[in-house]
Design brief:
The protein is of the alpha/beta class. Helix content is 37%, strand content 15%. The protein is globular.
Length: 369
Amino acid sequence: MRKNFINQQKRKIKNINQIVRKNILNLTPYQSARLLYKNNINNKILLNANESPIISLFSTNNKILNRYPEQQPKKLLNVYSKYINLNNENILITRGADEGIDIIMRTFCDPEYDKILFCPPTYDMYRVTANILNIKYLIIFSIKDTWEINFKKIKRNLKNIKIIYFCNPNNPTGNILNKNNIIELLKLTKNKIMIVIDEAYIEFCIDQTMISLINKYENLIILRTLSKAFGLAGLRCGFILANQYIINILLKVIAPYPISIPVLDIAIQALNIKNLIIMNNNVKTIINNKKWLIDKLSNCNCIKKIFTSTTNFVLIKFHNSDIVLDILNKNNIIVRNQNHEKTLNNCLRITIGTFDECKKLFFTLQKIS
């Protein structure tokens, strides 16, 4: 009986596999922090997903859920427009920045001819989304240890490239792009290639934003999110910023109702003046915690190098990251292993937590040393 059941299941899987697209069968999905760490997260110090350690105390009283929301709710467009000093017509609301990555690719890339380009080590959803959509991609690795983008090599490899994705500041390395290099690339690729700047962490170094270039360069798109500095990772609310014509094109592709009414309600609250002040103060707190932690960790001899970070996380190279990771796990401190990345051997990415969490992390690493 058992043998017959197993054979039946195998036949079912084989039949379904004949229907599923081959690129999906072979797909390695994005390894999210929650997917990688499936254990009970209660009483754990979670420093593995670049979330804010500070809880945002919002609630919604909106109980009218029998009607669909607007596709692009004007109230949210208005408050976000005021926050970033850009016109409503330059903004598209999305389900997090991840949806932005996806609809830009679906809008501009023909899988038969076009490629995207990105520069590892960087956010892996550029690769995963391309694989889902069966779009080819070109990888140009950043210069090791400095993590500077190899713009010279990019310029020599633009054939059939339709989109170039940059993360600024970059995840997982924490460094920022050179604005002059981006401007030069925007000029070179005008009317040929879209340049997408993912600014998920920009509130931690707001002076580095490329927003001022939106209306100067038609091929520039910027991605934003409320997940990081705003402490609303669970809300799934993001934005695409671009010139008005591109926004109108993307409106043809985006889902009819990307933002639910409860999400809309909380996002509007988060962007009022009072809560923007709180967000900025939280950013300052996290930056101060990071400075304290880096200063303390600089004396730990289990650490080989601490990379410069302009974000809410820090990338650290250890002499033996496997040992460190195991000891941290035993002490209920969960960080992100980067050892699988080609250029990040023995590296761990550590989100900056509360001051108490930073102290516990430091004392644990000090004991290892």
